[in-house]
APC family permease
Amino acid sequence: MSMVSRPAHRPEEPPDPATHAVAAEPVAPEASGTTPDTATASATGTAPDTATAHGTAPEADARHRLTALQGLAALSLDTMASVAYGPEAIVLVLAAAGARGLGFTLPITLAIVALLAVLVASYRQVIAAFPDGGGSYTVAKTRLGRRTALVAAASLILDYVLNVAVSVTAGVAALTSALPSLYGDRRWICLAVLVLVTAVNLRGIADSAKAFILPTAVFVGAVLTVIVVGLFRDAPASTVTADGHASVLSHNATAVGALLLLKAFASGCSALTGVEAVANAVPAFRAPAAKRAQRTEVALGALLGIMLVGLAVLIGRFHLQPVEGVTVLAQLADAALGHNWGFYVIQFATVLLLALAANTSFGGLPVLMSLLARDNYLPHVFSLKADRQVHRHGVLALAGAAAALLLFSGGDVNALVPLYAIGVFVGFTICQVGMVRHWCAERSPGWRGKTLLNGFGALLTGISTIVVTAIKFTEGAWLIAIALPLLILAFEAVHRAYTRIGERLGLGRVPEPPRRDRSLVLVPVSHLSRLTCEALNAAVSLGNEVVAVTVTFDSPEDRQATEALRRDWELWNPGVELLELPAITRSVGPPIAAYIQDLTAHRPGAGSAGAGSGTRVTVLIPEVEPARLWQRLLQNQRGAVVAHAVRRDTDAVICRLRFRLEAARTL
């Protein structure tokens, strides 16, 4: 009897009896050992973010985590490198008041360093109280509520992305100060540096820290050398760098008023971004993680404070005037060391560290995104880790957003700085207020002193937030005012989507007992081969009934191919029926999907995951796994086309069988 048939409704078979269980009562999260958020993560395929889940031993896991020194290199590059543009931002504002205005550089710097000291002390307390990381987001979620936590998270995300763009563009600006011929290519240089930093971070935060220890040490040593040598000079050793460049000092000097000083303070506060990164990434440290993170935070604050004050003193000592096209740090290096090899060492160390300062964001933001993903505010893919304990998807998302900003700004740091620091100061303020609530609730030993410290920090950062936003609003900060609520709305949309998914999946409820339905397996074929044989072997192992389907086309050459397949199938006689599905267009996916829809309509329960008693339809798609990666370009992607059509138009299960060519050569 022929085993080849044309389209026809398949005969009905009585379904197997099915056991119908009454839906169980809801199970409380505590009773089931999971929370709704983690249950949703499990349902959507998110693996637990632990070393055990990845099969990594604790010793091996420790090798991918940070020591205090590595943490300083991996998480403080942003803050360290800010000495290259923080003092310059102050000087450029004060230049509007002429030489008299520049005399206020040191007092404003001291005010910023005082704020830095308060922030460092406050974040030490955050690390101790919330050792699981997340910084202001975790504090706000615990003490201030969900919506406030989302504001903190959104502000930090914006700041981290801006940090990458500003760091890279500032580094390239330092490079073009030393090599002016490269100025026209700064956009592409910025993108190249971004690709380099991203590639290093994809290898893991510990590896990136090891790679950046030497550049960090060279930069800090170079800046301290400039400060120490400069303090022993009564006059600049050289002014070659600034010669021939137009001064930006205002000839119509304005009065030194409170508004000008506040604007200079707001601009200089860009030097404080990154202070929170250590608190955000506490889980990235080796045990005891909190102690190591606290030591890193203190070392970061001490080094930054010394460098900021030292450079401010030199600016006043040398009566430095900002000029177009040359950074303030370059002028200070020229004045302290002279225009010699030492000057170029400073410049290239600055270029390297500024470019690598983006690493702070790569160390902190993926951890924050992972926490948001666990709480169902970002796609769960952001909580997954690669083998080297790196949140790969978070790293790539950050790189993509930063690349878009670099292209938008054209590699011009001045176009990005007005947007900078606002987000992080919002996070600073929320974090300090949350810590005040925390200490008042905990009332642990010394809670009054801790409350006063965080309250004072909240007051200072709150005032700074208002000042920075108001001063920079017309300079581009209005974009942040728009982006922040849009990002929060995106968080809420993702959360609602996961809530709906959880409701549809019945998370938190005990499901009905599993039942056995009849299984019909469809195998798309186009010719006879060993691949066809392997597919049918797998199909008869999976289902009660197996049908091979082939899509036929009405053209002379296609009719010949169909006749040949029909003849070969009857000669082979595999015990499996071959069903021909005619198609009007030359597309293999829709005819198979249409057949499944027709089958479902005439066979109750067929193909429906939610049906009671019936037949489960599985489409087993055989595909070749090439011996070489490039050989995938030679494939016709027929399997992907069929899978897409079946997934889009039916509820059938899709199974893709990979036939490895390497295994075939060993037989």
